[in-house]
Amino acid sequence: MLTQLQEALAGQGRAALSGLGGVGKTQTVVEYAHRHLAEYNHTFFTVADSRESLVSGYVTILSLLELPEADAQDQMLAVESVKRWLSSHEDWLLILDNADNLGMARAFLPSGKKGHVLLTTRAQATHRQSSESLAETFEF
User: Fold this and answer.
1) What is the C-alpha to C-alpha distance for residues 10 and 8, in angstroms, rounded to an integer?
2) Distance between CA 64 and CA 24 in Å, rounded?
3) Please, which contacts does 85-89 make with residues 24 or more away whose CB atoms are closer than 8 Å?
4) What b/e readout covers 21-56, taking b as 16+ CB neighbours within 10 angstroms?
5) Are 62 and 116 in contact (CB under 8 A)?
6) Over the stretch 53-111, which tens digit does the pLDDT of each residue have?
7) From CA 114, how far away is CA 109, in angstroms rounded?
8) How deeply is 135 buried, as exposed, middle or buried, from its count of CB atoms within 10 A (0-12, 13-18, 19+)?
């Protein structure tokens, strides 16, 4: 599974692990991140089970990156700032854990393919290798 994730990320830049809760999706992506830590300049992990969780995670990422918008009152400025940073930098890994609402998660993804996005989800609506898919999906 870890090899398949690596190949998908190298080719498409995005991959998703799909399956029932409690089957080991989160542990698998954490293990992937641990094994490939040296390949990334930055590795970010955030819970994506709600819009509030994603916004909070992006505010934390903004703070870690020490971007100027860290003091902004509008949290959506933080989200946009992080997306811009991710779109303009290379060699990063962004893990969105429990991204069951794929439409919502899509709105938080940066444009381009300068880094890698790895999702865990219980959603079954992803399409393997479709041009419209959010990511290549591997089912548990």
Assistant:
1) 5
2) 27
3) 86/110, 86/114, 86/115, 87/111, 87/112, 87/114, 88/114, 89/41, 89/42, 89/114, 89/115
4) eeeebbebbeebbeebeeebebbbbbbbbeeebbbe
5) no
6) 999 999 999 999 998 887 777 888 999 999 999 999 999 999 999 999 999 999 999 98
7) 12
8) buried
The total domain count for the chain is: 1
Range of the domain at 31: 2-139
- Residue 65 tokens read as 């990156």
Q: If we measure between CA atoms, which residue out of 93, 42, 36, 33 comes closest to residue 65?
A: 42
- CATH number, residue 82: 3.40.50.300
The highest-confidence range among 13-27, 92-106, 125-139, by mean pLDDT, is 92-106
**CB < 8 Å & 24+ apart, contacts of 100-105:** 100/48, 100/49, 102/126, 102/134, 104/48, 104/51, 104/54, 105/48, 105/54, 105/134
